[in-house]
Amino acid sequence: MDESSGPPGHVPTDMSAAAAPRLSLGHERERLWRALLARVAQSDRDAFASLYDASSSLVYSLASRILGNRADAEEVTLDVYLQVWRDAGRFDAERGGVTSWLVTIARSRALDRYRSHQTRLKREAGPVEADSPSGAPSPERLSVMSQERRVVASAIASLTPEQRQVIDLAYFHGMSQSEMADHLGLPLGTVKTRVRLGMMRLREQIGDWAG
Asked: 26-124 belongs to which CATH class?
């Protein structure tokens, strides 16, 4: 009789040994992410950046599969980590792991965005009315536009000098993150973190105004 054979459901010793490293890695990742999340709950921005770097590919890939659009998936990923920053203290390890928590948030955010997109498409498919007979913005619209500009300016002013610098280089000078790193003489990872945190801060400030 072959020594590798056994009753139904039997797992050969060599297969168990092969699976062990994967299980160990999963446990180690969960332990690390929980430790980072605990620090995020204490408003530790370095821990937040580390958690983002370690887990954002998981969140992005799920959002991308649901939405099928890179830009939307990136927006959802930012939304997810803004919620993580706000709600880290509410994480309950008794209800599941950090991975499951992130996946749940990402799925919810992605589905909300998908539904919102569908609703917007239906609304935009309706009758189109000009702002005024001449096609120029109405006084009411001009007032809203002016208020929007003030909100954006205020949001930018709320950034740290480092975050404001990279946002300015990216969006007003058209530099890529690699170009910014060369221009500023900084590691690429540092630039990426500053851009991420800056964008999340802007989203938080503008989102609060938009309601």
From this structure: mainly alpha
CATH class of the 140-211 domain in this structure? mainly alpha
First vs last Cα of the chain: how many Å apart? 71
19: tokens are: 């699976």
Residue 115: DSSP 8-state: H
Cα–Cα distance, 50 to 125 (Å, whole number): 43
Give the predicted TM-score (pTM) of the model. Answer: 0.54
CA distance 202 to 168: 12
Q: How many CA atoms are closer than 13 Å to the CA of 32, on its beta-carbon side?
A: 12
3-class secondary-structure state, position 44: coil
Three-class SS of residue 5?
coil
Residue type (1 letter), 53: D
Dist. CA 76–CA 59, nearest whole Å: 9
| Position 155, amino acid | A
Q: Quickly count: other Cβ atoms within 10 Å of residue 164's Cβ.
A: 17
Share of the chain above pLDDT 70, in %: 68
Give the whole-angstrom CA distance, residue 25 versus residue 31: 10
122-126: average pLDDT: 61
Task: Pull the structure tokens for residue 128.
Answer: 């189109």
Domain ranges of the chain: 26-124, 140-211
Return d(Cα 41, Cα 30) in angstroms, integer: 16
Report how far residue 16's alpha carbon sits from residue 163's, in angstroms, rounded to the nearest whole number: 48
